[in-house]
Amino acid sequence: MQYHIGGASPPDTSKTTKLERYNSYIRRVNSTKLLQASSKLLFRVTLLVALVLIFFFTLNYPPLSSSSADNHHNIHSTNNFLSSAFYGSGASWEKQVRHSSTPRRPNGFSVLVTGAAGFVGSHCSLALKKRGDGVLGLDNFNSYYDPSLKRARQKLLSKHEIFVVEGDINDSELLNKLFDIVPFSHILHLAAQAGVRYAMQNPLSYVNSNVAGFVSLLEVAKAADPQPAIVWASSSSVYGLNSKVPFSENDRTDQPASLYAATKKAGEAIAHTYNHIYGLSLTGLRFFTVYGPWGRPDMAYFFFTKDILQNKGINVYVTQDEKEVARDFTYIDDIVKGCVGALDTAEKSTGSGGKKRRPAQLRVYNLGNTAPVTVAKLVGILESLLSVKAKKHVIKMPRNGDVPYTHANVSQAYRDFGYKPTTDLASGLRKFVKWYVGYYGIQSRAKKELDSSNTH
Ligand SMILES: O=C(O)[C@H]1O[C@H](OP(=O)(O)OP(=O)(O)OC[C@H]2O[C@@H](n3ccc(=O)[nH]c3=O)[C@H](O)[C@@H]2O)[C@H](O)[C@@H](O)[C@@H]1O
């Protein structure tokens, strides 16, 4: 009720009140209509966005279930997400996978190379492709060392029509997908967390890649039809604290000195199990300190070269009782021949439908150079190739998982596939340094000398 102050008599309000009520009713109706219209619009827009998203993820993208096998979990998970965005995206991706895996020689292999953008993986992929085998690469491009080197290797592979799928060996969905597309005759399994000393910094990355990743791969391989034959990278480090030299395959390997060695040893035990239960043909190769062009920057010969060229000091380890440390350094081309020889002599797996039909081949070989060289000698060779004097700090080997000495007996690899290393450390390092200065565009005395020695 309204009260009008003042002397004038109050107006007749009955009509105006009705009008006001009517107007307010109309306003309410209109605003409800507006609200309904905008909700409808909002609903439609939401529906449209949802449909687009569903389409996007179900048709073009595989499930985002990849897990990380590398040492940089977060970076890698992101990488997996990104890679998932690229793998499996339809017909053109499948076409690349098929094309890359198709052999171009009669009875050629179709090989899945894991760790194909890695050092040994890229060299082996090229060698297999060159002789007419089909090669499909798989690599997670983790950042354990400079990923741009891995990308450069990938580029090289792609020039030779080798496609590298970006993904992880722990991603069984991806692995199954690859096996759905291609009936691989072989797997060359080189993806791993490498490096002896880094295992103290990031132990779980070794378990993720070298144990869990290997099992994930074997699970897919055992269920595949046909089952592929598998050749994979073990390590000279499994000999651990063995003092009996040279190391032979039947020597004891139950005293690993590093977690890295322990995971490789675990891999050998796991290989035995999958061979025993499922009839997978498995060959483990114990590599001895592999070096060469396109090598790994975390290895001593590689970062010594870098540091010597930059006039930085290098640590040269000696044992606790001040004896020299030595390695059976093995040149990459010899290792490639060993890998190819192992693939060529690998028998077929014997299982199908996840069941073993009869006993299958199970092998393990040393692939070394049979001529250990001390680290001090390695540095001397680099000094002369680089024409720079190294700033050496000779220190006692920290307790970091390193072993003092390695020396391979390779008679079994020679007997079974003619493995015979032919490159001594000086010739191999010459090739490495030549590649190094070229790749990193280094203008140095070393480069001039290497170039001129080439023209003579
Ligand atoms: O043979 C193998 O199975 C292993 O070979 C290498 O391991 P490693 O032999 O320790 O190779 P580097 O790390 O390059 O070391 C070579 C030598 O240099 C020595 N070193 C290393 C680093 C350093 O600062 N100073 C130094 O004297 C090491 O003690 C070792 O004797 C690889 O890094 C492993 O991935 C591989 O599995």
Automatic annotation (TrEMBL):
Entry's family note: Belongs to the NAD(P)-dependent epimerase/dehydratase family.
Record keywords: Isomerase, Membrane, NAD, Transmembrane, Transmembrane helix
Top EC group: isomerase
InterPro entries assigned to the protein according to its UniProt record, in alphabetical order: NAD(P)-bd_dom, NAD(P)-bd_dom_sf
MF terms in GO: UDP-glucuronate 4-epimerase activity
Protein name according to UniProt: UDP-glucuronate 4-epimerase
Topological category with respect to the lipid bilayer: Multi-pass membrane protein
Record text on subunit structure and interactions: Homodimer.
Lineage: Eukaryota, Viridiplantae, Streptophyta, Embryophyta, Tracheophyta
Domain NAD(P)-binding: 112-431
One GO CC annotation: Golgi cisterna membrane
